[in-house]
Write a structure and sequence with these properties.
With 247 residues, the protein is α/β, with parallel strands linked by helices. The chain has 2 helices and 17 strands. The longest helix has 41 residues.
């Protein structure tokens, strides 16, 4: 072995050692990420992973999701106050950047972009309202629960997601305009008997929707409520036959 070859081997050894150290650190970080993800999915995410603010009813409105996890468990309380609303564009990548929010522990101009990859969301039983476009364009979202406390879902809250089935809680009385519009993968939705009104275009372009029940308490149905769905004419007519008024 020449002196030059010996020198090259001596230089290569620390480089190889550095690569092993870097690989070990990366594996450790992945393991920590996975462990914390499993814990947060079970008990709820920490407050610093959300943008939030106090709402007019004294509760907390989630205004943004800042975390790196694809399985999101929204906490029932932040700073000791109940989370009662999921706000406008809260989980949507289409949300305007300057929408006001408190970002605990993070500078206000920072924004992560994992939202379009979110797979599942757990909404706590404290939430009463899901705002307009809240999960809009979360194109990989397949499962989200409807908490028993829920009373209002605003327009296009779940548009362009991959949710296939939903069950609304007893106590909801109205399905707002465009509330479930453009859920193009939705196949089945179960409505509670407490529903009294289904507003115009509520299920607009839910083209794969084929299973739905007529609520016992239904009184009003909007025009074009089921426009562009996969429901038969007989299924749609059953809603208008049950209702007292067309709005």
């Amino acid at each position: 072995m020449t002196l030059n070859e010996a020198g090259q081997k001596a230089v290569a050894r620390p480089k190889k050692k550095i690569r092993y150290i870097v690989a070990a650190i990366l594996l450790l970080l992945i393991a920590v990420y996975a462990i914390f993800g499993a814990v947060f999915w079970k008990i709820g995410m920490p407050a610093f992973m959300f943008g939030y603010e106090k709402n007019d009813n004294g509760g907390i409105t989630i205004t943004d999701y800042l975390g790196p996890y694809l399985y999101v468990h929204i906490p029932d309380k932040i700073d000791g106050v109940e989370v009662t609303e999921i706000g406008y564009h809260a989980f949507s990548d289409k949300k305007p950047v300057d929408f006001p929010a408190k970002r605990t522990g993070l500078k206000s101009h920072l924004r992560f972009s994992f939202n379009d990859n979110i797979r599942e969301v757990i909404i706590p039983d404290s939430v009463e309202k899901i705002g307009a476009f809240a999960f809009d364009d979360c194109e990989n979202l397949t499962n989200v629960n409807m908490p028993s406390s829920l009373r209002e879902i605003e327009l296009d809250a779940f548009s362009d997601t991959k949710i296939k089935e939903l069950e609304l809680p007893e106590g909801m009385t109205k399905i707002d305009y465009h509330a479930f519009a453009f859920l193009i993968y939705l196949e089945k939705i179960t409505l509670p008997d407490s529903i009294e009104e289904i507003d115009r275009a509520a299920f607009d372009t839910c083209r794969n929707l084929k299973e739905i029940n007529v609520p016992a308490g239904l009184k009003r149905v909007g025009e074009y409520a089921f426009y562009g769905t996969g429901l038969s004419d007989e299924q749609i007519q059953a809603f208008y036959d049950k209702a007292e008024d067309v709005i």
